[in-house]
Amino acid sequence: MNDKRPVWLTKRLIVDERVTTLERDLAGLRLNTVCQEACCPNQGECFSHGVATFLIMGNICTRNCRFCAVKSGTPSAPDPQEPQRLAQEVERLGLRFVVITSVTRDDLDDGGAGHFVSVISALRERCPGVGIEVLIPDFGGSESALVKVAGARPEILNHNVETIPRLYSSVRPQAEYRRSLQVLSQAGRMGLLTKSGLMVGLGETLEEVKEVMLDLLNAGCRLLTIGQYLMPSKLHHKVVEYVSPEIFDQYKDLALSMGFSAVASSPFVRSSYMADEFYSLLMAGKRSH
C-alpha cells in the first residue's frame, strides 16, 4: 500500500511549558512512560493536560512483538524505590486518575505482579482517592500473579488482546489469544472492571473484529478501545490499511449495540488515551442509574 498517511492521521504537535516540565520531572525521577517509549502520537496532547501512562519495571521488554516500539532485550531488576517516586510525581501533578502499565517481564517469577501491587499501595498511601487503571501483561498465564494484582483492587484492569487471533503469529508471536481472554475472564470473576484494546489496519476483516468483540464480551469485558496501528519503524509489521474515521464510528456503534458499556474508537485512540475522561464518563453513567 501507499505509505503516505491520510489527512485524518495528521496531528498537531503540542509543545508547551507543561509538556517540557513534565518531561523534565519524569527524567529527574527516573520514571518511564509508555507515551515516550512506544512513540505514542498523543503524548504531547496528554502531557499538556498533565496526564501520563507510567511504564514500570524499566523500558526493556522480554518479548519482541512486531507492532511495538518498546525495546526488547534483557531488563534490569525492578527498582524497589520506583513505586515511591511514581507516587511522588502523581501527587505533584495532582492527578485524579492514573494509568500504570509495564513491559512484559517473563524473567520474573510472578511476571512483575508484586511490583504492580507495590506501585498501587504507594499510590493509595500518598494519593488517597486517586483512581487507578492497570494495563497488565498476561503474566505468562499465571493465575496466582493475577490474584496478587486483583487483591490490590485497581479501579480498572486493562489487558489488550491487540489484534485478531489469525494475526497473532505475525504480530504477537510470544503471546496467545486464548490466554489473553483468560486473563480478562479471571479478572472479571475476581470482581474487577475489565477493559481491552484492539489495533486495526493490520489486515483484519470486519467479521473478524466482530468475533473478537464477542469473545471479549463472553470473557466479561465491557470497556473497549479501538485505534489505528501505526508502524514504528520499517522493521515492524507493515500497515495494511489506514482505516477511515467512518469505519471507526461503525466499530463503535457495533460494539455498543453488542453490549459494551463504553467504547473509544477513532484513528488516534490508544488503550490509555484520555483514560481519566473515559473512567469519569463511566462513573457518571453508573451514578445516573
Write structural notes for this entry.
- The protein is of the alpha/beta class and 289 residues long.
- The chain has a single domain, classed as Aldolase class I (TIM Barrel, Alpha-Beta Barrel).
- It is built from eleven helices and ten strands.
- The longest helix is centred in the middle third of the chain and has 14 residues.
- The N and C termini lie far apart (47 Å).
- About 2% of the residues have low confidence.
Give me some keywords for this one.
289 residues; alpha/beta; TIM Barrel; 11 helices; 10 strands; 15% strand; globular
Number of domains: 1
What letter string, H or E per element, gives the SSE order? HEHHEEEHEHEHEHHEHEHEH
Low-confidence stretches are 34-39
Average pLDDT confidence is: 85
In CATH terms, what is the fold-level topology? TIM Barrel
- What's the CATH H-level superfamily name? Aldolase class I
Strand segment tally: 10
Strand content: 5-15%
Helix tally equals 11
- State the share of residues found in helices, binned by percent: 25-40%
Shape: globular
* N- to C-terminal distance: 47 Å
Write a brief caption for the model.
With 289 residues, the protein is of the alpha/beta class.
Which helices and strands appear, and what pairs or packs with what?
Elements: H1 17-28, E1 32-33, H2 34-37, H3 43-48, E2 53-56, E3 60-61, E4 71-72, H4 82-93, E5 97-102, H5 113-126, E6 131-135, H6 143-151, E7 156-158, H7 168-171, H8 177-189, E8 193-200, H9 206-218, E9 223-228, H10 245-258, E10 262-265, H11 275-287
Parallel strand pairs: 2-5, 3-4, 5-6, 6-7, 7-8, 8-9, 9-10
Antiparallel strand pairs: 1-2
Helix pairs in contact: 4-5, 5-6, 9-10
